[in-house]
Amino acid sequence: MIQSGPAAPPPALSAHGITKRFGSLVANDSVDFDVHFGEVHALIGENGAGKSTLMNVLYGVLRPDGGSIRIEGRDVSFASCSNAMRAGIGMVFQHFLLIDRFTVAENVLLGRERTRGGFTDRAAAESEVRELAARYKFGLDPAARVEALNVGARQQVELLKVLERDARIVILDEPTAALAPAETAALFDVVRRLRSEGRAVILIAHKLKEVMALADRVTVLRRGKVSGSLPIDRADAATLATLMVGKVIDLDAREPRRTAPGDVALAVRDLSVLNDDRLPAVRGVSLDVRAGEILGLAGVEGNGQTEFAEALYGLRPPSGGSVTFAERDVSRLSAEARRSAGMRYVPADRQREGLVLDFDTAENALLGDQRRTRRGMRLDLPLGQRLASAIDARYSLAGFDPAKSAVAYSGGTQQKLIVGREMTDDVRMLICVAPTRGVDIGAAATIHRRLRDVRDRGASIVLISFDLDEIRALSDRIVVFSEGRIAGEFAAESATDAQLGACMAGVSSVA
Fold first, then answer.
1. Is residue 441 in a domain?
2. What is the pLDDT of residues 135-173, one digit of tens each?
3. What does the alpha-carbon distance between residue 227 and residue 51 come to, in Å, rounded to a whole number?
4. CA distance 167 to 224
5. In this structure, what are the phi and psi dihedrals at residue 14, rounded to the nearest 5 degrees?
């Protein structure tokens, strides 16, 4: 008699036939998905493909209209996130759910406060969070207020919230979308450690290089359905891109210019800018940008690039120096006046700075120009509807409806709405911060192509990106910011990761 071996353990989490509808839109259409302990399973797809919807179903944020969920082979049904957390699931959302005025420790232990004698025991809480942070090599001060932290540190706080509850199944929704390269590498180390600890990790991602570097398996969603699922050793970037969007896309390829750069359009001289704490953020920066040129600004996030962009657009007054645009000193002009002169701006934070989330799509399509286009005291909503429809035609906004609130779109679709609004045909100067942050590979290719088109029509572009591949692929020249100063300048076609990384770190040369 042949003896069979021990039965394989069931998946840590498995979903079968998950269906979720929003009116006539089927966001998830009979989706099967599972993840095992000690595994990183990546979930990829275009914006609006249903990735976040599926994860929200697994985490109890949404109730499915069909299908079933199992934890270690046992049927479960989640009425809320609390049910999912008690079942061992933790989720780090793409847009962080933190209370800015609370400390790190207060956010991590929110709802699970440590008390002594009926009062909150702050010392015990901070000691516990400090120990947990040290275990994962997070350089966090438990007593620091979250509002003072950069994006990477805030993400670490979100991770600590999950780890403090000892989640065995960890969902990471676009965890690197807002991170600089060094922060991304540190996060990779954490993900690998979670896997080595035997946890199951679900990674929602857009960057195929990250998927190839981290995942054990990958599942692709397309228009709400699974278009493919395979182990990573049978996958490559071309296969995954084809499963996502139906064709091979190479975002890293440089394309030849159609026109030569013209005269200097933007001249910055000895510009200094203070941050929100009235400390120097930009220190005596001077540079020129020509008409029909993309100037790439590389650097670790938090080295003055955002303050520099805000000063160029008129959102932050300079503490010294000057900005000249089209031979006119605009240093003291408002953002509205600069916009009237042809400047446009894609901000770093789409939800806080780029959109009014409660406004509908048509209203958001008018933002920035609402005073110039209004009818008396009212917004010109027919114009907004036409502009929104034009953006949809160019960028394919998933689930588009001019009357839909911006908050109802995925993060990537929100980003496309902002980029489409700012990259108008009459733009003369575009200041762009992380334009493809959080968008899928197809949308990123569309945005890259549009940036090149805008440049070739003679506009000047200042591109601030924390993706070195993107900087190299799009820029005509690259300058590196470090501690608020220009640390170096490079020809984009010959700059290497080692050279740029060393300059970002303050090292003058690379062997």
1. yes
2. 988 889 999 999 888 777 888 999 999 999 999 999 998
3. 12
4. 27
5. -140, 140
